[in-house]
Write a structure and sequence with these properties.
2 copies of one chain form a homodimer. By secondary structure, chain A is α+β, with helices and mostly antiparallel strands. Chain A folds into 2 domains: 65 residues, Arc Repressor Mutant, subunit A, CATH 1.10.10; 78 residues, 2-Layer Sandwich (Gyrase A, domain 2). The first copy, chain A, is 45% helix and 21% strand. Chain A contains 6 helices and 6 strands, in the order αααββαββαββα. The interface between A and B is medium-sized, with 16 and 15 residues. The first copy, chain A, binds a DNA duplex through α3.
DNA sequence: ATGAAAATTGAATATTTATGCAATTTTAGC
DNA sequence: GCTAAAATTGCATAAATATTCAATTTTCAT
Protein backbone atom coordinates (compact mmCIF):
# COMPACT_ATOMS: atom_id res chain seq x y z
CA UNK A 1 0.00 0.00 0.00
CA UNK A 2 1.64 3.11 -1.32
CA UNK A 3 -1.04 5.23 0.37
CA UNK A 4 0.98 5.89 3.46
CA UNK A 5 4.09 6.94 1.61
CA UNK A 6 2.11 9.42 -0.41
CA UNK A 7 0.60 10.79 2.72
CA UNK A 8 3.97 11.11 4.39
CA UNK A 9 5.26 13.12 1.45
CA UNK A 10 2.32 15.45 1.57
CA UNK A 11 2.71 15.92 5.31
CA UNK A 12 6.34 16.75 4.79
CA UNK A 13 5.48 19.39 2.24
CA UNK A 14 2.75 20.87 4.40
CA UNK A 15 5.10 21.13 7.34
CA UNK A 16 7.85 22.59 5.25
CA UNK A 17 5.63 25.27 3.77
CA UNK A 18 3.36 26.23 6.63
CA UNK A 19 3.52 27.22 10.22
CA UNK A 20 1.48 24.43 11.75
CA UNK A 21 1.22 24.15 15.49
CA UNK A 22 -1.10 21.28 16.17
CA UNK A 23 -2.22 18.02 14.68
CA UNK A 24 -5.84 18.95 14.22
CA UNK A 25 -4.87 21.78 11.94
CA UNK A 26 -2.63 19.49 9.99
CA UNK A 27 -5.46 16.99 9.86
CA UNK A 28 -7.65 19.61 8.20
CA UNK A 29 -5.03 20.41 5.62
CA UNK A 30 -4.52 16.76 4.90
CA UNK A 31 -8.22 16.33 4.35
CA UNK A 32 -8.13 19.08 1.77
CA UNK A 33 -5.31 17.22 0.07
CA UNK A 34 -7.47 14.16 -0.07
CA UNK A 35 -6.14 12.20 2.88
CA UNK A 36 -8.67 11.32 5.53
CA UNK A 37 -7.06 9.85 8.58
CA UNK A 38 -7.47 10.17 12.32
CA UNK A 39 -5.30 12.05 14.75
CA UNK A 40 -3.88 8.74 15.95
CA UNK A 41 -2.51 7.96 12.55
CA UNK A 42 -1.18 11.43 12.07
CA UNK A 43 0.63 11.24 15.37
CA UNK A 44 2.31 8.08 14.14
CA UNK A 45 3.15 9.68 10.83
CA UNK A 46 4.81 12.61 12.52
CA UNK A 47 6.86 10.32 14.66
CA UNK A 48 7.95 8.38 11.62
CA UNK A 49 8.98 11.58 9.90
CA UNK A 50 10.83 12.60 13.07
CA UNK A 51 9.02 15.89 13.07
CA UNK A 52 9.89 18.15 15.98
CA UNK A 53 8.02 21.02 17.60
CA UNK A 54 10.13 24.06 18.10
CA UNK A 55 9.75 27.65 19.22
CA UNK A 56 9.00 30.30 16.65
CA UNK A 57 11.28 32.55 18.66
CA UNK A 58 8.41 34.41 20.13
CA UNK A 59 5.41 32.99 21.90
CA UNK A 60 4.47 29.97 19.85
CA UNK A 61 5.57 26.59 18.62
CA UNK A 62 5.37 24.90 15.27
CA UNK A 63 6.26 21.63 13.63
CA UNK A 64 9.54 21.33 11.88
CA UNK A 65 11.32 18.67 9.91
CA UNK A 66 14.66 17.41 11.17
CA UNK A 67 17.54 19.44 9.72
CA UNK A 68 19.16 16.52 8.00
CA UNK A 69 15.83 15.72 6.47
CA UNK A 70 17.11 16.43 3.02
CA UNK A 71 18.82 13.33 1.77
CA UNK A 72 21.83 14.59 -0.03
CA UNK A 73 22.23 13.59 -3.63
CA UNK A 74 25.25 11.49 -2.83
CA UNK A 75 23.38 9.77 -0.08
CA UNK A 76 20.62 8.97 -2.54
CA UNK A 77 23.08 7.22 -4.79
CA UNK A 78 24.36 5.16 -1.88
CA UNK A 79 20.83 4.14 -1.15
CA UNK A 80 20.61 3.05 -4.76
CA UNK A 81 23.77 1.02 -4.29
CA UNK A 82 22.15 -0.80 -1.42
CA UNK A 83 18.99 -1.50 -3.31
CA UNK A 84 20.86 -2.63 -6.37
CA UNK A 85 23.04 -5.07 -4.51
CA UNK A 86 21.12 -6.43 -1.57
CA UNK A 87 19.39 -9.78 -1.72
CA UNK A 88 18.59 -10.75 1.84
CA UNK A 89 19.36 -10.02 5.43
CA UNK A 90 19.18 -12.44 8.32
CA UNK A 91 20.23 -12.43 11.91
CA UNK A 92 21.65 -14.53 14.63
CA UNK A 93 21.81 -12.81 17.96
CA UNK A 94 23.71 -9.57 17.66
CA UNK A 95 25.06 -10.49 14.25
CA UNK A 96 23.52 -10.04 10.86
CA UNK A 97 24.40 -11.48 7.49
CA UNK A 98 23.54 -9.67 4.29
CA UNK A 99 23.70 -11.61 1.06
CA UNK A 100 24.28 -9.56 -2.07
CA UNK A 101 24.59 -10.14 -5.76
CA UNK A 102 28.06 -11.42 -6.63
CA UNK A 103 30.66 -8.69 -6.35
CA UNK A 104 28.24 -6.23 -4.77
CA UNK A 105 29.05 -6.82 -1.12
CA UNK A 106 31.67 -4.11 -1.04
CA UNK A 107 29.54 -1.37 -2.52
CA UNK A 108 26.63 -2.23 -0.29
CA UNK A 109 28.81 -2.37 2.77
CA UNK A 110 30.43 0.92 1.97
CA UNK A 111 27.05 2.50 1.37
CA UNK A 112 25.76 1.27 4.70
CA UNK A 113 28.81 2.82 6.26
CA UNK A 114 28.04 6.16 4.70
CA UNK A 115 24.41 6.00 5.77
CA UNK A 116 25.67 5.57 9.32
CA UNK A 117 22.70 3.68 10.65
CA UNK A 118 22.71 4.02 14.42
CA UNK A 119 21.94 0.33 14.81
CA UNK A 120 25.11 -0.87 13.15
CA UNK A 121 28.29 -1.05 15.14
CA UNK A 122 30.41 -2.30 12.30
CA UNK A 123 30.43 -4.40 9.16
CA UNK A 124 32.83 -6.18 6.82
CA UNK A 125 32.30 -7.41 3.30
CA UNK A 126 33.44 -10.40 1.27
CA UNK A 127 32.38 -10.86 -2.30
CA UNK A 128 28.65 -11.51 -1.90
CA UNK A 129 28.31 -11.52 1.87
CA UNK A 130 28.41 -8.88 4.58
CA UNK A 131 28.73 -9.44 8.29
CA UNK A 132 27.12 -6.89 10.55
CA UNK A 133 27.46 -6.40 14.27
CA UNK A 134 24.58 -4.65 15.97
CA UNK A 135 25.30 -1.89 18.39
CA UNK A 136 24.63 -2.80 22.00
CA UNK A 137 21.00 -2.41 22.94
CA UNK A 138 19.82 -2.54 19.35
CA UNK A 139 17.75 -5.38 17.94
CA UNK A 140 17.34 -6.71 14.46
CA UNK A 141 13.85 -5.22 14.50
CA UNK A 142 15.39 -1.79 15.10
CA UNK A 143 17.69 -2.21 12.16
CA UNK A 144 14.97 -3.50 9.89
CA UNK A 145 12.77 -0.57 10.81
CA UNK A 146 15.62 1.76 10.05
CA UNK A 147 16.04 0.11 6.69
CA UNK A 148 12.36 0.39 6.04
CA UNK A 149 12.39 4.12 6.61
CA UNK A 150 15.76 4.97 5.13
CA UNK A 151 15.95 2.83 2.07
CA UNK A 152 12.51 3.12 0.45
CA UNK A 153 12.52 6.92 0.59
CA UNK A 154 14.14 7.46 -2.76
CA UNK A 155 11.42 8.10 -5.27
CA UNK A 156 12.25 11.57 -6.69
CA UNK B 1 12.43 37.81 43.01
CA UNK B 2 15.51 36.25 41.51
CA UNK B 3 14.11 32.78 42.18
CA UNK B 4 12.68 32.31 38.76
CA UNK B 5 15.80 33.34 36.93
CA UNK B 6 17.87 30.91 38.91
CA UNK B 7 15.43 28.21 38.12
CA UNK B 8 15.49 29.03 34.42
CA UNK B 9 19.26 28.74 34.37
CA UNK B 10 19.19 25.40 36.08
CA UNK B 11 16.56 24.15 33.67
CA UNK B 12 18.71 25.24 30.80
CA UNK B 13 21.68 23.36 32.13
CA UNK B 14 19.64 20.26 32.77
CA UNK B 15 18.28 20.30 29.26
CA UNK B 16 21.66 20.93 27.76
CA UNK B 17 23.29 18.07 29.60
CA UNK B 18 20.61 15.42 29.65
CA UNK B 19 18.27 13.63 27.34
CA UNK B 20 14.98 14.61 28.93
CA UNK B 21 11.75 13.69 27.26
CA UNK B 22 8.99 14.82 29.57
CA UNK B 23 8.25 17.45 32.14
CA UNK B 24 7.72 15.13 35.05
CA UNK B 25 11.25 13.85 34.71
CA UNK B 26 12.55 17.36 34.55
CA UNK B 27 10.45 18.19 37.56
CA UNK B 28 12.19 15.46 39.51
CA UNK B 29 15.60 16.71 38.53
CA UNK B 30 14.65 20.22 39.49
CA UNK B 31 13.52 19.04 42.88
CA UNK B 32 16.93 17.48 43.44
CA UNK B 33 18.45 20.84 42.55
CA UNK B 34 16.30 22.45 45.18
CA UNK B 35 13.52 23.89 43.08
CA UNK B 36 10.04 22.71 43.96
CA UNK B 37 7.48 23.83 41.45
CA UNK B 38 4.50 22.32 39.72
CA UNK B 39 4.22 21.05 36.19
CA UNK B 40 2.23 24.15 35.29
CA UNK B 41 5.09 26.42 36.20
CA UNK B 42 7.59 24.22 34.45
CA UNK B 43 5.52 24.32 31.30
CA UNK B 44 5.64 28.11 31.43
CA UNK B 45 9.36 28.05 32.06
CA UNK B 46 10.00 25.88 29.04
CA UNK B 47 7.96 28.16 26.87
CA UNK B 48 9.87 31.14 28.13
CA UNK B 49 13.14 29.41 27.35
CA UNK B 50 11.76 28.53 23.92
CA UNK B 51 12.64 24.92 24.48
CA UNK B 52 11.68 22.60 21.65
CA UNK B 53 11.06 18.89 21.50
CA UNK B 54 12.86 17.17 18.70
CA UNK B 55 13.49 13.68 17.42
CA UNK B 56 16.53 11.79 18.64
CA UNK B 57 16.79 10.40 15.14
CA UNK B 58 15.45 7.10 16.18
CA UNK B 59 12.24 6.43 18.07
CA UNK B 60 12.14 9.07 20.73
CA UNK B 61 11.94 12.76 21.42
CA UNK B 62 13.78 15.01 23.82
CA UNK B 63 13.87 18.64 24.85
CA UNK B 64 16.33 20.92 23.20
CA UNK B 65 17.33 24.52 23.54
CA UNK B 66 17.03 26.78 20.53
CA UNK B 67 20.21 26.66 18.45
CA UNK B 68 21.18 30.26 19.11
CA UNK B 69 20.81 29.58 22.78
CA UNK B 70 24.47 29.80 23.49
CA UNK B 71 25.25 33.44 24.20
CA UNK B 72 28.61 34.04 22.69
CA UNK B 73 31.27 35.67 24.82
CA UNK B 74 31.13 38.82 22.79
CA UNK B 75 27.40 38.92 23.08
CA UNK B 76 27.78 38.69 26.83
CA UNK B 77 29.86 41.79 26.89
CA UNK B 78 27.30 43.63 24.84
CA UNK B 79 24.68 42.66 27.31
CA UNK B 80 26.94 44.13 29.96
CA UNK B 81 27.11 47.32 27.95
CA UNK B 82 23.35 47.52 27.98
CA UNK B 83 23.08 46.91 31.67
CA UNK B 84 25.83 49.38 32.44
CA UNK B 85 24.28 52.17 30.45
CA UNK B 86 20.55 51.81 30.51
CA UNK B 87 18.40 53.86 32.86
CA UNK B 88 14.87 53.60 31.60
CA UNK B 89 12.75 52.68 28.64
CA UNK B 90 9.37 54.11 27.75
CA UNK B 91 7.05 53.90 24.82
CA UNK B 92 4.65 55.90 22.77
CA UNK B 93 2.89 53.86 20.14
CA UNK B 94 5.43 52.11 17.97
CA UNK B 95 8.28 54.20 19.30
CA UNK B 96 10.42 53.69 22.32
CA UNK B 97 12.80 55.99 24.13
CA UNK B 98 15.66 54.63 26.14
CA UNK B 99 17.42 56.95 28.54
CA UNK B 100 21.00 56.11 29.37
CA UNK B 101 23.75 57.46 31.57
CA UNK B 102 25.46 60.41 29.90
CA UNK B 103 27.61 59.30 26.95
CA UNK B 104 26.34 55.73 27.06
CA UNK B 105 23.63 55.97 24.45
CA UNK B 106 25.91 54.90 21.66
CA UNK B 107 27.31 51.84 23.32
CA UNK B 108 23.88 50.70 24.40
CA UNK B 109 22.42 51.34 20.97
CA UNK B 110 25.22 49.48 19.28
CA UNK B 111 24.84 46.59 21.69
CA UNK B 112 21.11 46.38 21.01
CA UNK B 113 21.95 46.25 17.36
CA UNK B 114 24.27 43.34 17.88
CA UNK B 115 21.73 41.52 20.00
CA UNK B 116 19.35 41.82 17.06
CA UNK B 117 16.15 41.69 19.05
CA UNK B 118 13.37 40.71 16.67
CA UNK B 119 11.11 43.37 18.09
CA UNK B 120 13.33 46.25 17.08
CA UNK B 121 13.16 47.57 13.55
CA UNK B 122 15.79 50.22 14.06
CA UNK B 123 17.33 52.62 16.56
CA UNK B 124 19.46 55.74 16.70
CA UNK B 125 21.41 57.20 19.57
CA UNK B 126 22.19 60.67 20.82
CA UNK B 127 24.29 61.22 23.92
CA UNK B 128 21.99 59.88 26.60
CA UNK B 129 18.90 59.00 24.60
CA UNK B 130 18.00 56.28 22.13
CA UNK B 131 15.04 56.23 19.81
CA UNK B 132 13.65 52.84 18.90
CA UNK B 133 11.12 51.88 16.29
CA UNK B 134 9.25 48.67 16.88
CA UNK B 135 8.89 46.21 14.09
CA UNK B 136 5.40 45.97 12.68
CA UNK B 137 3.19 43.67 14.71
CA UNK B 138 5.39 43.91 17.78
CA UNK B 139 4.30 45.56 20.98
CA UNK B 140 6.24 47.17 23.76
CA UNK B 141 5.26 44.19 25.90
CA UNK B 142 7.00 41.91 23.42
CA UNK B 143 10.14 43.95 23.59
CA UNK B 144 10.11 44.18 27.34
CA UNK B 145 9.68 40.45 27.58
CA UNK B 146 12.57 39.98 25.22
CA UNK B 147 14.65 42.25 27.41
CA UNK B 148 13.58 40.36 30.47
CA UNK B 149 14.83 37.09 29.03
CA UNK B 150 17.88 38.30 27.16
CA UNK B 151 19.41 40.85 29.42
CA UNK B 152 19.31 39.34 32.91
CA UNK B 153 20.90 36.10 31.73
CA UNK B 154 24.50 37.04 32.24
CA UNK B 155 25.80 35.68 35.50
CA UNK B 156 28.59 33.26 34.52
C1' DA C 1 5.77 53.61 53.63
C1' DT C 2 1.46 52.87 50.64
C1' DG C 3 -1.43 51.54 47.02
C1' DA C 4 -1.91 50.10 42.22
C1' DA C 5 -0.18 47.45 38.59
C1' DA C 6 2.49 43.64 37.18
C1' DA C 7 4.63 39.16 37.91
C1' DT C 8 4.63 34.59 39.74
C1' DT C 9 2.57 30.51 41.07
C1' DG C 10 -0.56 26.35 42.14
C1' DA C 11 -4.78 23.88 41.56
C1' DA C 12 -7.92 22.41 38.51
C1' DT C 13 -8.96 21.72 34.02
C1' DA C 14 -8.67 21.95 28.99
C1' DT C 15 -6.09 20.81 25.14
C1' DT C 16 -2.91 18.19 22.64
C1' DT C 17 -0.42 14.10 21.64
C1' DA C 18 0.71 9.10 22.15
C1' DT C 19 -0.55 4.29 22.53
C1' DG C 20 -2.90 -0.44 23.61
C1' DC C 21 -5.79 -3.20 21.32
C1' DA C 22 -8.56 -5.22 17.85
C1' DA C 23 -9.95 -5.16 13.09
C1' DT C 24 -8.61 -4.90 8.40
C1' DT C 25 -5.46 -4.81 4.64
C1' DT C 26 -1.18 -5.88 2.48
C1' DT C 27 2.88 -8.75 1.65
C1' DA C 28 5.40 -12.99 0.85
C1' DG C 29 6.14 -17.64 0.56
C1' DC C 30 4.57 -21.72 -1.01
C1' DG D 1 -4.68 -18.73 -5.02
C1' DC D 2 -4.13 -19.53 -0.09
C1' DT D 3 -2.23 -18.76 4.39
C1' DA D 4 0.61 -16.75 7.89
C1' DA D 5 3.13 -12.84 9.22
C1' DA D 6 3.58 -7.99 9.04
C1' DA D 7 1.75 -3.40 8.30
C1' DT D 8 -1.76 0.01 8.70
C1' DT D 9 -5.47 2.08 10.84
C1' DG D 10 -9.40 3.62 13.99
C1' DC D 11 -11.32 3.76 18.38
C1' DA D 12 -10.95 4.51 22.98
C1' DT D 13 -8.14 6.01 26.32
C1' DA D 14 -3.82 7.17 28.57
C1' DA D 15 -0.19 10.35 28.97
C1' DA D 16 1.80 14.77 28.37
C1' DT D 17 1.47 19.63 28.05
C1' DA D 18 -0.87 24.19 28.19
C1' DT D 19 -4.01 27.48 30.15
C1' DT D 20 -7.64 29.66 33.08
C1' DC D 21 -8.52 31.55 37.30
C1' DA D 22 -7.67 33.06 41.81
C1' DA D 23 -4.35 33.93 45.31
C1' DT D 24 -0.02 35.79 46.60
C1' DT D 25 4.16 38.30 46.08
C1' DT D 26 6.94 41.75 43.99
C1' DT D 27 7.78 46.24 41.73
C1' DC D 28 7.35 50.90 41.24
C1' DA D 29 5.77 55.40 41.43
C1' DT D 30 4.39 58.47 44.61
Amino acid sequence: MRERHNRLSVIKELIKNNRIDNQDTLLEMLKKEGFSVTQATLSRDLKMLKVGKISDGWSGYYYSLPENDFISESEKSYIQDVRRGIISIEFSGDMGVIKTRPGHANSVCFALDVLALPEILGSIAGDDTIFIILREGMTKEDLLESFQTRIPEIKD
